[in-house]
Hints:
Rossmann fold, 7-stranded parallel beta sheet, alpha/beta, 4 domains, globular
Amino acid sequence: MLEKIMRLLSSISVEESNNIVKIKGIPGEKLLRDMEKVWGTSRIGLNFFNEVGRNHLIMHSFFLPDFVYVLRTLLSHKKAHRVGARIITKIIDRIYTDTWLKSTQTEYNSMMNKDKLSDILFSPLDHQKEFINTYDQMVQKFKLKGYLLAAAPGSGKTLTSIFLSHSLEADVFVAVVPPNSIDRVWRTTLNDCLRPGFKVWDSRSNDPLEYGYTHYVFHYESLEKAVIFFDKVKQLYKKPFLVLDECHNFNDMNSARTQYFIQLCSILNCNHVLWMSGTPVKAMGSEVISLMTTIDSFFNKDVADRFKKIFGVSVARGLDILANRIGFMSFKIEKAKVVGNVVEVKRADVRMSNGQEYTLAEIRVKMSKFIDERLRYYRNNMGHYVSIYKTCLEAFKKTIKTREEHDEYLRYEKYANALHGGLDPMNNKEEVAFCNNYENKIIIPNLPSNMVKDFRNSKSVYKYYYLKVQGEALGRILGKQREQCNVDIVRNTTKMKLSWGSGSNKETEDEVSIFDLIDSSEKKTIIFTSYVAVVDEMFSFLQENGYKPMKVYADTNKNLSEIIKSFEKDEDVNPLIATFDSLSAAVPLIMANTVILMNSPFRAHEYDQTVSRIDRLGQTEIVRVVNVFLDTGKESNISTRSNDIIKWSREQVAAIMNMEVSDVAALESIADVSDMCELIPNIKNDNRPGWLDW
C-alpha cells in the first residue's frame, strides 16, 4: 500500500495553459465524493470542474483559490476520507508552484506613490492607510483589476476612494454614484478636499461634458452618457480609475445600469475599479457576478455560468467557499472601529382596535378565499387565454426568417407546452428561464404593439396560472394588507409601549407617544417607511398636531437638495418623513440623531443603510433607533413577521461575507422570504406543485 501511495505522489502533475488547469495522477472521482460528503451536495463539485476522471481533474484557472480552500477543508474534516492527506497536501504544493497562484506567495514592489496624497487637503485615517496598503499587495498577488471596499456606511468611503486614486497616480477619476449623493457627498467632498488645480465635473451641473476635467462624477441614470463620452476620448487616458459607490445597486447582471457599467470598465480598459458599499451583498451568492466580471480577468462566461450554479441560490452549502473567495478581493471596515457612535435601539409596540385584521391567521383566510376564486376563474377561462396566446404566437411566427430562428422558436414552443402540461417550474428552472428570456427579448419586441399586453397576460396563464395566482395573492391581498396595517398604525402612535433588550433581559418603559420621541431627541428626527401612503398619513397627522414636517418620496426627489437644506437649516422643520427607496442610502443626515422606522424593510442591507443616515462620522449625539410594530399579543402579524425576514437576510449576508453568523444552515429551506410565502396555503385538489411551503 505504501509503495502505491508513493508512486501516486510522484506522478501528480499540474499543468496550466490558456486559463485551463489539468491535474493528473490524482483520484478525481474519489475527491469529488469527498466534497459531496463534506458539503452535503453534488452541485459544488459538478460545476467546479470541467472534467472529472478516475485519475485526473480539469478546471478553469479562476477556481484555483476555491479549490485550494476545498482541499484544506478536506484535510481537516472528519467526513472526508477517500483521498489521503499526503495526496491532498501534494496537490496543494503543486498548485502553488505550477499555476498562477504562485504569485500569491510573492511580496510585490509598491505601485503607490504616497507623495501624491499631498494633492488632498486632508490626511488619511489609519483604516484608510491600511486599505491602501492592502489594495497595493492584494490586487497584484491575485491578478485583480480592482477591489471591493466593504466599508460601513458613514466610515469615509468617498475620501478613501480619492486617496486611493491619487496614490495610484490616476490620470482621470470617474465616479458612478447614486443621484441623491452628488450634491451633498461627492461634489462637496471633491471641492473641499482637492488642492487648487483640479477640475471637477458632475452630471448634475450645467457644465458641458468635455475632455479636460480631472474628476468626473456620473449618477446612475447618466451611465449611458458616460459610455458614449469615454468611448470618444478613451485613447487620451493611460491610467483611469473608476469607482462605483453603493455598488449593491449593481448586483443584478440583467439590469441596464449594470451592463452600462461593465461596458464603461471595458471601454476605459480600467485596471483599477473600486466597488464600494456598506452592504455589498443583499442575500444571494450570485450578486457578486457583476463584481467578478469587472475586476477578475479569469472570470469569463463559462466560469460565470458555473459560478451561478454553485452559489446562485440562497442556501448555506458552499457559502464558506464563497466567503473565502470574497475575503481576498475585499477589505472590510466595521463601523464600530471607525465611527464609534453609541447606538440605542428600542422597540415601540402599538395596540389598535382593528389589529386582529392583520394577524397571519386572518390574512390566511382572506388569501385562501382569493386563491380559490382566482384558480376557479383561470380554470374556467383557460380556453380564452389559450386562444389569445396562440393568436399572438401566430402573429410572431410571421416574423421568423432564418432556419436558426425557427429552431429556437421550436425550442421555446416545446418548453412552453411542457410547462402548460404540468412541468414544475420550481424544479425546471432552465426551461422557465429560457422561455422568459425568449419572450422578453424575441417575441415581445416583434409583436404588433396592440398585442403586447394580451400576450404578457396570456403567456403567464398558459404556462403556470397557479404561479400567476400566487403573484396576484401576494400583491392584491398581502401587499395591500401590509400597507394598510402601517397606515392604520400611524394614528395609534399616540400610545406606544417602548422596550429594549430581548428575552429575560428585556426592559420596558412607560407608554410614550411619537410626539415624545420627536420632542425628546437631542437633534432632529427622521421617520422611514416603505409606503407612500404612510408618508402622506404621517405628514397629515403631524401637521394636525402642530409640527412642520417635510416628506421625501419619488414625487419630491427632484427637490431633494432643497428639502434636505431646509431640514438642516430651518429650526422649525421637523421631522423628515421618507420612504426607504428615496432616502435610505447615499445622503448623510447627521443634523438628526433619531430614526423611527414605521415598518422594517425586508432586507438587512436596507435597514443598515437607513440607520447609517445618522450613524456615521460626524455624529455628535447618541444615535436613537426606534422600530415600530403592531402588537397583537401572542398572535403573529404582518408587522412583527418582517423582523424575522431581516434576521434571515442578515444571516445570509454574514455567511457570504465571512462575518459572524449563527445557524445559517437551518435556513436552507427558505425559498424567498421577502414575499412571506408561508401565508399562501397549498392548493387543494390540484396535481400541480404546491406553493412555497416553509
